[in-house]
Amino acid sequence: MANSVANLVETRRDQIFPTFTAAQLARLHHFGQRTPLRAGEVLIEPGQRFGGIVVVLSGALEVVRPGIDGEGPVTVHRPGQFAGEISALRGAGAFVRVRVLESGEAIAIDHQGLQRLVQGDAELSELLMRAFILRRMGLINQEQGDVVLIGSGHSASTLRLRQFLGRNGFPYVSMDVDRDPDVAALLERFNVGIDEVPVILCRGETVLKNPSNEQLADCLRMNPEIDDAAVRDLIVIGAGPAGLAAAVYGASEGLDVLVLETTAPGGQAGTSSKIENYLGFPTGISGQALAGRALVQAQKFGADVSVAGTVVRLLCHRRPYRIELASGRVVHARTIVVATGAEYRPLAIANLSQFVGAGVYYAATYLEAQICKGEEVVVVGGGNSAGQAAVFLAGNCRRVNLLVRSSGLAASMSRYLIRRIEESPNITLRPFTEITALEGNGRLERVAWRTQGQGEAETRDIEHVFLMTGAVPNAKWLEGWVALDERGFVRTGSDLSAEDLAATRWPLARAPHLLETSRPGIFAVGDVRAGSIKRVAAAVGEGSAAVQFVHRALQE
Ligand SMILES: Cc1cc2nc3c(=O)[nH]c(=O)nc-3n(C[C@H](O)[C@H](O)[C@H](O)COP(=O)(O)OP(=O)(O)OC[C@H]3O[C@@H](n4cnc5c(N)ncnc54)[C@H](O)[C@@H]3O)c2cc1C
Question: Please, which residues bridge with residue 67 across strands?
Answer without folding.
Answer: 70
